């Protein structure tokens, strides 16, 4: 099953007709949902592998070493530039590391999930070359990686340690600080150090009962003997990817070699067209499936990966030194680039300003009519932007959260290259939809990945159905559900959460509400579950926040909302009338209750109370609303509550749409 890079027009034009599943559909089965759709090029068979003979990540790496052995593979900043190990060198060190892990008995086989026999091993560090060499070793020797986000605190770490029972963790010096704070170590006993530690750190870790090894010592030990590579199958578990625990304890998504192999194949079937000449800077968190998939796809194609120095303040310099050809990021960072570039354009005067303004206008017109990214004349106005990304960036990628059309369109013309928008979840191995470079329209998901089929399931409680008509045009709407080779195996040791995510027919329910566009792609319009993402890609659980806000003195009710194109939440607060009137009298503010709710001093007072109480109850900065509207009428007045007084969010969102819009418009 070959997978060459398809032409843009052939790949990304989506079928308008229903494409059936393996089992024939019946009218009864289709009731309450849209028809099942696939990418038009893969209507008959979803894409499983990138090329013949590569069915596992182990086979993929062996193929890459054979083809690109002497080419630069993994780079590290040393001296004043990036120094690279070749594919042969990385493979050799990974083999020695894998053998050393075995010789030192650092990992034990456990049978803790269904029929799988797993050898679990942890890693707790920012992106770095040793991280990927460990990942490479795990692939070769059949170990299952359990990555820990470097931002995890002493609450989440013990939960993952307890659930996985890992005995060995590869860890950076910085991450040991969080580990030492944990009250329970569970079965974790071996730490492989990626950095030198102070005598105090060593003493603290040994006092907690940890046995310490140096990364280099494990590699050296592996040179003493030969151990055969593991027999890895597509169904073998490659990693447990723990998702954010914002709504409770984190969940470990079980992802197989087959999941990632199909995702690599699908990535190469998009307009990305990653090749051996490409260079990627790795700085997005490696425990996240998006960055993991990008790096594995780069390794499949023989490309080069350089790892940033771990300091966001040095990222700009790292970009200048590495000069990547592919740049991947998230909306939050792209927005910073956008703001900075626009500010610099506004600073210029005279002829330069008029030329820049004309360049923006003309290039935007060409982009939105012809999907044209370059212009012989007007590209000169954006040379500084191209230099900002290293001067040779040919492609950008964005994911993890939606990005505003104004921002992405401007960056496309300023960087003079396509920006592909991807959509996926941890549970679907990162890539489920992707836009095309040929498409002049932004702010949608594009069409389904080559390994994915999808359907929309009615959500009648929110008035979204497959029979909806919008502006006189039939526009199916509903929850996006996915099936295909990228869909995960379930949550580790959590059958209840697994059953909530994957139904009996094997469909992954994403919780996102989408509509089918005119050409068969998808656009997200709402969120089914009572959680949402902010611009940073962070999940917010509004019910938890509302429960705390409702306990603030003077607060009667609250409604929390967050737009995924924004970086902050907003709060609709119903204040207690007597409390407000008493405070106003003390401050000698004269007005009726409705106007008191609009008074800046009253609003500021509530803002301070919310901030103080939220912090006292351990809300993080993203969970504290800096934008609030005081509503004098109870929520029940607007029909926002059920008969059992539960908040109907979709109704509250509609009722307070104007207030929400004004709050976001007025933010600093």
Automatic annotation (TrEMBL):
Region listing for Disordered, in residue ranges: 14-33
The entry's keywords: ATP-binding, Nucleotide-binding
Keyword Zinc-finger: no
Annotated Pfam families: AMP-binding (PF00501)
Highest taxon in the source lineage: Eukaryota
Domain AMP-dependent synthetase/ligase: 62-492
GO cellular component terms given for this protein: endoplasmic reticulum; membrane
Keyword ATP-binding appears in the UniProt entry: yes
Bias (Polar residues): 21-33
A GO molecular-function descriptor: ATP binding
InterPro entries, per database record: AMP-binding_CS (IPR020845), AMP-dep_synth/lig_dom (IPR000873)
Protein name (database record): AMP-dependent synthetase/ligase domain-containing protein
């Amino acid at each position: 099953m070959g997978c060459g890079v398809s032409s843009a027009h052939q790949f990304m034009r989506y079928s308008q007709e229903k494409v059936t599943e393996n089992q024939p559909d019946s009218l009864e089965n289709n009731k309450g949902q849209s028809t099942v759709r696939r990418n038009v090029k893969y209507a008959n068979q979803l894409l499983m592998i990138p090329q013949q003979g590569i069915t596992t990540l182990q086979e993929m790496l062996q193929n890459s070493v054979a083809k690109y052995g002497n080419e630069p593979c993994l780079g590290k900043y040393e001296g004043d530039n990036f120094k690279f190990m070749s594919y042969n060198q990385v493979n050799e060190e990974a083999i020695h590391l894998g053998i050393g892990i075995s010789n030192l008995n650092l990992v034990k086989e456990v049978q803790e999930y269904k029929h799988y026999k797993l050898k679990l091993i942890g890693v707790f560090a920012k992106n770095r070359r040793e991280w990927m060499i460990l990942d490479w070793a795990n692939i070769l020797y059949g170990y299952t990686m359990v990555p820990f986000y470097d931002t995890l605190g002493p609450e989440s770490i013990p939960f993952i340690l307890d659930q996985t029972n890992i005995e060995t963790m590869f860890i950076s010096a910085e991450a040991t600080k969080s580990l030492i704070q944990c009250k329970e170590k569970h079965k974790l006993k071996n730490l492989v150090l990626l950095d030198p530690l102070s005598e105090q750190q060593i003493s603290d870790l040994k006092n907690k009962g940890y046995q310490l090894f140096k990364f280099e010592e494990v590699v050296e030990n592996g040179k003493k003997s030969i151990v055969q590579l593991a027999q890895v199958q597509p169904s073998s578990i490659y990693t447990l990817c723990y998702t954010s625990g914002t709504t409770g304890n984190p969940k470990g998504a079980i992802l197989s070699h087959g999941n990632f192999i199909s995702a690599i194949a699908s990535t190469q079937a998009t307009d990305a067209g990653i090749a051996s000449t490409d260079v990627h800077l790795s700085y997005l968190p490696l425990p996240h499936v998006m960055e993991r998939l990008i790096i594995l796809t780069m390794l499949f194609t023989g490309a080069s990966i350089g790892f940033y120095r771990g300091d966001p303040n040095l990222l700009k310099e790292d970009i200048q030194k590495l000069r990547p050809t592919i740049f991947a990021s998230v909306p939050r960072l792209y927005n910073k680039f956008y703001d900075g570039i626009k500010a610099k354009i506004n600073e210029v005067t005279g002829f330069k300003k008029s030329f820049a303004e004309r360049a923006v206008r003309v290039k935007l017109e060409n982009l939105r009519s012809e999907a044209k990214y370059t212009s012989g004349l007007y590209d000169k106005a954006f040379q500084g932007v191209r230099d900002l990304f290293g001067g040779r960036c040919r492609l950008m990628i964005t994911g993890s959260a939606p990005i505003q059309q104004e921002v992405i369109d401007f960056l496309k013309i300023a960087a003079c290259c396509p920006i592909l928008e991807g959509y996926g979840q941890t549970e679907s191995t990162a890539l489920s939809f992707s836009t095309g470079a040929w498409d002049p329209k932004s702010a949608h998901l594009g069409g389904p990945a080559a390994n994915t089929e999808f359907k929309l399931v009615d959500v009648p409680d929110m008035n979204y159905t497959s029979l909806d008509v919008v502006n006189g045009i039939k526009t199916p709407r509903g929850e996006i559900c996915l099936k295909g080779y990228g869909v995960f195996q379930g949550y580790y040791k959590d059958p209840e959460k697994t059953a909530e995510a994957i139904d009996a027919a094997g469909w992954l329910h994403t919780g996102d509400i989408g509509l089918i566009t005119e050409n068969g792609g998808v656009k997200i319009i709402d969120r089914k579950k009572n959680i949402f993402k902010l611009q940073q890609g962070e999940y917010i659980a509004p019910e938890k926040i509302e429960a705390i806000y409702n306990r603030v003195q003077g607060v009667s009710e609250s409604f929390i909302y967050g737009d995924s194109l924004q970086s902050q939440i907003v709060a609709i607060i119903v204040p207690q009338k007597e409390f407000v009137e008493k405070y106003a009298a003390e401050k000698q503010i004269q007005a009726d209750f409705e106007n008191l709710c609009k008074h800046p001093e009253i609003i500021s007072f509530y803002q301070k109370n919310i901030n103080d109480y939220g912090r006292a109850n351990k809300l993080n900065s993203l969970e504290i609303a800096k934008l609030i509207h005081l509503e004098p009428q109870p929520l029940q007045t607007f029909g926002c509550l059920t008969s059992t007084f539960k908040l109907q969010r979709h109704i509250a969102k509609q009722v307070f749409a104007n207030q929400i819009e004004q709050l976001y418009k007025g933010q600093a």
